[in-house]
Design a protein that fits this description.
Blueprint: E1 2-8, E2 15-21, E3 26-32, E4 39-47, E5 50-57
Antiparallel strand pairs: 1-2, 3-4, 4-5
């Protein structure tokens, strides 16, 4: 199961959407902002069908 969540770049504030597989309980990955190109880390906790917590870190 997948779920989507809106996040904001911690540097420039640009919002984007991430889609996560909620059958995996923990996600941790680095992505680049589409506007300012700076990398940031996304950490999420899920349960099937739902994103419980999502955090964006510099």
């Amino acid at each position: 199961m997948e779920a989507s969540e809106s996040i904001a770049c911690p540097f420039c504030g640009q919002s984007s959407t991430v889609v996560l597989d909620t059958t995996v309980s923990e996600h941790r990955f680095t992505t680049d902002c589409e506007v300012c190109c700076r990398p940031f880390e996304v950490v999420a906790e899920c349960e099937p069908g739902e994103i419980l917590r999502i955090e964006v870190c510099e």
